[in-house]
């Protein structure tokens, strides 16, 4: 069965972040994440601050995924 099993919508670490920038599912034992990273323009400013914060959360979550021992695909628009 190749039906994806949704794991999460949204990047963990900021419950107030309602932007649809991260989707994660398992497909035949492979964790697949679809990302749409924030652009962050203009710099400096709140959008850039949000981008840096988002990257910190992403790096922390990605490290946990890689440490899980499962194959992982992190694909999308990295801006």
From TrEMBL:
Q: Which InterPro entries match?
A: Endo/exonu/phosph_ase_sf, ExoIII-like
Picking any one GO molecular function of the record gives:
double-stranded DNA 3'-5' DNA exonuclease activity
Q: Which SUPFAM superfamilies match?
A: DNase I-like
Q: Which BP terms does GO give this entry?
A: DNA repair
> PANTHER family this protein is in?
EXODEOXYRIBONUCLEASE III
User: Per its record, how is this protein called by name?
Assistant: Exodeoxyribonuclease III
Species name for this entry?
Stutzerimonas stutzeri
């Amino acid at each position: 069965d190749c039906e994806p099993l949704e794991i999460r919508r949204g990047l963990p670490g900021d419950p107030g972040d309602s932007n649809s920038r991260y989707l994660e599912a398992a497909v035949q034992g492979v964790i697949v994440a679809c990302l749409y990273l924030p652009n962050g323009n203009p710099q400096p400013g709140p959008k850039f601050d949000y981008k840096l914060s988002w990257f910190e959360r992403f790096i922390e979550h990605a490290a946990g995924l890689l440490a899980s021992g499962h194959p992982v695909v992190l694909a999308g628009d990295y801006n």
